Every structure is written in C-alpha cells, then in structure tokens.
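Task 17 of the worksheet. Students: predict the tertiary structure of the chain below and write it out as structure tokens. Keep your answer in the requested format; marks are given for formatting as well as content.
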Amino acid sequence: MMQIKELVLYGKKGQKRTIAFNIGKVNIITGKSKSGKSAVGDIIEYCLGGSKCNIAEGVVRDNVSWYGLLLQFDANRIFIARKNPEVGQQSTSYCYYDAGADITSPERCDFESNTNVEGIEKLITIELGISENVHIPEDSESRLPLQANVRHALFYCFQSQDEIAARTSLFHRQAEEPFVSQSIKDTLPYFLGAVNEEAISLVTERRSKERQLKLLRRELNEKNSLTGTGSERAVGLLAEAVKVGLISSETGIDKSDFNALYSALSKVELVTTAITSDSLDQLSKLQTQLEEKQEELRLINNSILEAQKYIGDATGYNDEIIHQKVRLESIGLFEKLDFDAGKCPLCSGQLNPEPPSISLMKESIIALDKAISRVEKERPKLRRYIDQQEQTADAIRGEISHIKASIDGVYEQWENAKKIKDLNARKAAVYGRISYWLDNVKPEPNFNDLEQKIKLIETRIDEIDSILSNDSIKDRTYSALSVIQTYMTDWAKSLAMEYTGHPYRIDISKATVVVDTNRPVVLREMGSASNWLGAHLISMFGLHKFFITNKRPVPNFIFLDQPSQVYFPEGTTEEDMDIKAVEDIYNFIFERADDSNGKLQVIIVDHAKLETDVFKANTVEEWRDPDDNLIPVSWYK
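Model answer:
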C-alpha cells in the first residue's frame, strides 16, 4: 500500500505549510478560483519523480523553496522533498528523502540533497513492490523493450482538470505525447498481473537454456555425423579403406552390425610403399652424358660434311682439268708435245733461243698433267676417312639412343613414384578419418541420455515461451479487463450514464473506453460531458478495485481535479450548479472509497462545496477566505 499522509511546503523565509490527508478515505480540498487547488496535483506528481515541474508560475513558485510528501506504506514511511526549480528552469535534480517506521516531516528545510530524481523513482518503485519486469515488443515492432516503474503506475492515479472529463483521452498524460499512450498500452498488462512477476529471471533462464541447447545439439550433430544413420559413416569408411588398399576386401563383414564395422576398422593399419630417392641424381648424370654425346656427334657430322665438300670441290676441279686435257688430246697435243729444251712443243722444230711463251706453255701442260694425277690419288683416301667418321657417328647415335631410353625409364619411374606417393597420401587421409571416427564413437553408441537432456531443455523453453508469450499476456490482460468491465457496467447504472444496461469496457489497444451496443461506441462518441466524466470515473475506480483485490503494486490513491466542473464550471455561481448531479458524483466516490475498506485514498480538489454531512466530514481544507489559500498570504504580504 502507498498513500499520501502529508503534503508539505517549505517557504523561502523558513515557513512550513502542511496539508494532512486521511489514509484510506476521501480527502476534499474545496476553494475558490486561483486559490492553488490545481497546484496540489502538480506538487504531488513533481515530488513522485516528475521529469518537470508543471506548477504554474506565480505565488506558489515565487514563495516555495522545497516541496515535500510524507508517504505511508504498509509498515514504513518515506519523506520525499524536491527543490523548487530556479526561475526560468523546469526541473532540478536536488532531492531529499528519509525513511523509517514513524518518521515525520521535518520542521525546516535545512536538509541537503542526498539523492536525485532517478534515485527517488527507484526508491518508490522498490518500496511499492514493483518487481523486475520487461515488456518485449512483438517482432514486427521496432521500439525498445520497456520496464514498468512507479512513473507508469501513476498514469492510473491522476485525473487533472483537463483530463477528468476529456473525450479524446482516458489516462493521465495520455494526450501529451504519443509515446505516453504507447507506454500505457505496454505497461498496463504488468500492473494487471498479466505479466509473470519473474519475467526478467525467466528471460535470463531462457537465454541460458538456449546456450545449453545449442551446445548439446552441436554435440549430438557431431556424434551423428561420426556414426551416421544406420552405421552409414562406418560403411563409407570401410569402402574407402578397401579402395586405397588398407583393407583387402569387404567380404565377410556384416555391414548392418555396428560392432562388426567398428572391429574391422579398428584393425586397419597404415602401410605405405617406399619410394626411391636417387632418381634425380641418375637423371642429371644421364642428361649430362646425352649432352656430351650430342656435342661429339655434332663435331663428327661437321668433319664429314667438310670432307664431302672437299671431295665435291676436287671432283669439279678434276673434271675441268680432264675436260681441258680432252680438248688438247682432240688436237693431238699431248701425243706430239715435246718437252725437250730448244724444240717447239708443237712441231718439235729447233728454237734458238726458245720464246718465253713456249716455256710457259710447257710448264702449264706439265702442271695440268700432275694435277690430274694428284687428284686421282687423293680421292680414295678421302672416301676411307668419310667411311670411318660415318661408323663413329653411327656408334655415337646408338649411345645417344641408349641414354635417351635410360632417361625415359627414369621419367617412368618418377610417374610410378608419384602414383605411389598419391596412394600413400590417400591411405593416410582415410586412415586419419578412421582413427578420428574410432576416437569419437564407442561400440553400440547410445545417445538416449543426450537426446533426453535436449528434450528436457526444449520443454522448459516452450514453458517459458508460453509464460512470456505476447498472446498469453494478451489473453490474461483481456481476462483482467473483463473483470473490470463488470464493475464499470454496474457502476454506469448508478451514475445514470447514457448507455446504461450495455457493457462498458476499457479497450487497451486504443487506450479508451468502449460501450458495446449494437456497435462499439468509443469515448469520444458518447455524446455529453457527463458521460465522459462518468466513463473516466468508472474506469479509474474499476482499475483500482482490481489493483487492490489482486494486490498489485500501484499507489493506492486517486487524485481528482474538479469532478464537478461538468455541472458547475469554475467561475459560475453555486445557484447555477446541478446539485443533484454533483451529489451523485460524490456519493459514487464515497461509496468506492468505503468499498475499499481503507485500501484506497481519494484526494479531490474542487470549486464546489456541498452541504451534505458526508461532504463536510471528508473536507480537509477549505480555501474560501484570502488567508486560507495553498500559500498563506502572510508568506508574501
């Protein structure tokens, strides 16, 4: 329970002004216009962690130093004070609090700030019993998760002057910003009890379970990948082992028997074929020999060509000489030619002295004859030389062919070695896979324990999802609202509202009131200010009755600012007031407070003043005279 025991004002000159409220009852402050009535609600909200000070500029802001509230909880009291913002400012973080079972409000504001607005908010949230909670938007929604606190609970505790009979909004501050309306929709399910109190711990547990489940599933998948379905993995490894020669044959192995497969694979040994390593040196020597023999053959072929060329040139020369000799023989020169000195070589006549030309002729013929003789002598020797060189070349060619054959043999040996190396690598790879499989499985594998753990975790996650499910929350929210609907429908009769007899309900999706006739009629369509006022009252009191009955962590007070304004607008005379209608409104409020058995406090500030005994009995302040305002005249005059 949380109700307000005192509202305290500390003047800038050291004064103290206290308004005492009765716990569990209706508390009425009635007064004339501009006496400070509406500031009461603003002060209460500011002290309870309001983000800004909505107290109007004027007498209150000019003369108050600190605002304070003495809050009554079940077995504890908390005094909260907030400093009045400086001129031109809307808020301040200077806050003070004190807590204890029997504390009273300080007589003077000589205290210093010992917390801030966030600290006040957290303090009251904890004291109210608002547990850790979170609203997680649906996947299609982009807004961030929201945790309900005391500031959200106050949406259902205030009805200010411009809200209590509003046609377009139902809750406190709903019309200020769009996010306020959304916050009401997101947090009301928690305050109605539709959200599990252990939501935060359940979310944490779910994350932990998901991590465990991921690890267990990974382990199971690894096991399954190793063992396969129906020993498929073992059968595949067996086939690979046969293919690379680690096992001679699959014959005699029962492939449907896991233990037989395990036994066969466990006997596999890695046996590889040795590869010689001297082939490279041998190839290098052979290539060197080949190059030497090829060079030797080139030189011999060159010598043969030179000899053949020489024979060809000599033969041409000899042929030319013979041709010339034949010409001379055709005229009988060689038969008649006399080479005796002093004789003519043609006619053998005496020549004394002998002419030089004759001498030259003789020498030429002699040289010609010798050349023919010499060529004929050299020709057989050259033929023999060429034949010898050809024989040598043939022998070298044979050696070259032998060397090339040896080189081809080395290359073939290399190819075989490469194949052996590849086979050895394949054997090693298969053997490695078999070893890994053997290391990670056991004969007659049994995954029942692992699968059972996974099933238990999945079941628990499903349970948590069911608890946290937005659909489940919606169902429980609608269930709670249906209970409140019965209160609202019944109370609408006592207020003689227009659609009496039809169900009145709160539509959380639109944050408004709907009455179900032949069609849904929303608040703004209900037609008159008295209906709007009635809808607000039955909604707020309906919610609080549900909160109290189900012990929900919402402050147990409702602040109402001028509920009579529909019938008695401020500034009019009391003669213009619809007394009967106003009395009906107040009687309704008194009855709701009495029904709560002290669990609900109602604070009302109003211009109206009724002469009924119950109204007078519940009036705590009356501000009719100039000296009886919220701020005493003596504070500033």
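Marker's comment: Residues 356-440 form the longest helix (85 residues). Residues 611 and 633 are 27 Å apart (CA to CA).
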